[in-house]
Each structure stands twice: as C-alpha cells, then as structure tokens.
Design a protein that fits this description.
By secondary structure, the protein is mainly beta. The chain folds into two domains: 5-34, no CATH class; 57-162, Immunoglobulin-like (Sandwich). It is built from one helix and eleven strands. Strands 4, 5, 7, 8 and 9 form a five-stranded antiparallel sheet that branches. The chain has a four-stranded mixed sheet with strand order 6-3-10-11, with no helix packed on it. A hairpin with a 1-residue loop joins strand 7 and strand 8 (121-125). 14% of the residues are buried.
Length: 163
C-alpha cells in the first residue's frame, strides 16, 4: 500500500474504502435478511384494530394547573389508559404542551393520571403523586375531551370529561 501521509497522518486511498466497509455491509445484509430490523411501533394505537370495521374514537387529553402553587423545579405528567379488565392499553408521558390525542377503539376505558415532580431537575424525578382516575366510554368516530385539573397545593387532581 502506498504511504500517503499528510503532516504525519496516514490516509487510505479511496479505492481501499469499499474493501474496509465490506464486513459492515455483510453484517447489515445478514441482519436484514434475518428480519432483525423491524419498524418501530407507532405512538398511537391502531385506528382500526384487526377484525374491527368500526372507526376509532379519539380521546383528547389536556392537563391544566389550578390554584397558585407550582412545583419550583417542574413536574412531568404521565397517563395510562386501561381496559376494565385491567389490561393496559398504553402508558405515556404528556409532552411539554400538556396535550395529547389518542385514537382508541370504541369501548370502555379507565384513564389514570399522575405527576412526578422534578427533584433538582427533571433528570431525576420524585415518586408518583397527584394521582387521579376516571372511567370513560369511547364511541365510534367520537372525540371525547378529558381535562386533567392538577392542584399542586392540594396534592390531587380531577379528570373532567366533555363530549
């Protein structure tokens, strides 16, 4: 191999790059052929579950703070949607906008919310607090609005529904 140096650094000729990349290409092709690279699951549940011809309904969630108390270091809101059987449909962190809309199959659910206060910064969180829950029913094609009203002074929250 020719000694191609530039200020003491060795540079490989461009024709050598395909030879050096060959192991990476072989491993990638083998993984693709084996099916180990799969698409990531969507953040949203399926709008039309397998075997269901009914259109999904939507649950529009919004968190609002009531009262004057605010956590000095911040807080993160989490939600969980469960079936009456207890099966968890999804658990998510609300984005910074404190809003999220979820497509859900028609049926009965339980919406659970809780806060995790930031401890110093939001890289470290306190245990869950300010919990509340509410049962709800989603109808086909319906948009149900859920407002999570959090009062940090009273250490609680309330979920209000509106069709």
């Amino acid at each position: 191999m020719p000694n191609l140096s530039f200020r003491g650094r060795r540079w490989l000729p461009v024709v050598m790059l395909p030879v050096l990349m060959m192991p990476v290409l072989i491993v990638t092709a083998a993984a693709l052929a084996a099916g180990s690279f799969t698409a990531q699951a969507s953040l949203r549940p399926a709008a039309h579950p397998a075997g269901s011809a009914r259109p999904a309904g939507h649950l529009a969630i919004r968190k609002v703070r009531v009262g004057d108390a605010i956590p000095i270091e911040g807080a993160i809101t989490f939600i969980r949607v469960k079936r009456p059987s207890g099966r968890v449909v999804l658990t998510r962190r609300l984005p910074a906008s404190d809003r999220r809309t979820l497509p859900l199959s028609p049926g009965r659910y339980r919406l659970v919310s809780w806060q995790r206060l930031c401890d110093g910064n939001c890289g470290t969180l306190d245990p869950p607090s300010h919990r509340c829950a509410r049962s709800l029913t989603i109808r086909a094609g319906e948009r149900l609005r859920a407002t999570i009203r959090v009062n940090y002074a009273a250490a609680g929250c309330v979920i209000r529904l509106r069709r």
